[in-house]
Amino acid sequence: MNAPTPAYDDEIDLRAVFQTLWKARLPILILTLVAAAAAYAVSAWLLPREYQASAYVAIGRPSIQYYSSEILSIVPTVPDIKALPELLKTSAILEQVTGDSRVAALLPANVKQLPGQISVTTVGASQLRLDVTGTDPRLTAAAAAVWAEKAVDWIELNYGIGAFADTIDGNIAQFQQAYEKAQAEMETFLAQDQTPILSSKLSARNDIYGCLEKKISAANSLLARLAQFDSNLAATDEALSSSDALLLASIEQEIGALGVCGGQMTVLQSLSPARFSGVSSAEGKRVIGDMRNNLDRQVKDAQAQQQVLQEEIQDLSAQIDRLNYQRGEYDRQRAQAASVYQQLTLQKSVVDNILRQSGGVAAVSADAVKAKPVSMSPFVIAAMAGLTMAFAASAWVLFRERLADSSQEKK
Fold this sequence. Notes:
The protein is about 65% helix and about 10% strand. The chain contains 11 helices and 5 strands.
């Protein structure tokens, strides 16, 4: 029969372990204290401590009553909170932070950027957390607070109605200048306006033209009467009848009464009907011919004057139309600038009311007052280093003891 195999005893004798560790208590204690002291010295004097400051920015639609009309309709836009973390870390915003006097006074010389780390995270659906980590607690807190303010300004500029108000201010100034310019141009134009003088000349020309028109009409009527009289009168040596003599004298008086338009009226002296008494019919026909020639000449002269007057009237009318158009343009520009100015002023008052009612699209909900340390305390580091060394030393002692026991069993 085979001899029975002895059972392997793998149970740990805790009493022996504690005895072994107790025997080596002094080296383990020394190593533990050395490790703790070294860790404390390194963490307290060599490694810089880090601090973190956080500020919170709330995002939301302003709680206001919107104004709507034909002139203005304002509805603030809520930004996408998921896109803001990257947008708020752009160099343009961070340069504003470092350029702020509260941060620049704490930055080291020749340093133009924030030391340490920065991060933006979303908190819920309507807040952003801005974290700044660094070794200077004052600088860290100031940077976080200023960063939150600049972030709010940037959000308001791009999503709020504050930018719209600034735009209105610029437009108001622009159209006010346009109105003042149009008013000055209108006053200069009115001081040099020749329209009243030209209108007076035009009225006088029209009066003369109308007078000539009446003169031509009257002359043509007299020519018709003379032609009828001449056709009824026979060229004989007999004297004119008293009625024919009276008619001839009457026509001569009417010809003299035609006068001159646009000047001193020239009327022939009234002649007595006896002037043509005893005049033969042949002599009467000669007088009628002279009268007709005189009337034809007056008609031609009046028509020539009408042609000249018509050209002058057209020229004066064109000048007056141009001046009226210029005055209308100046008046239109002034009225347009005044109308837009009034509309913009009304818009400005509406926007100001909205801004007074609203807290804006974004606001700092929690400012970074004091930076908190984020690195471990030197005492904690020393304790962890001491415990680690104690565990390692104990393990080493037990391992050496086990090796010694194994060697004795082999012998």
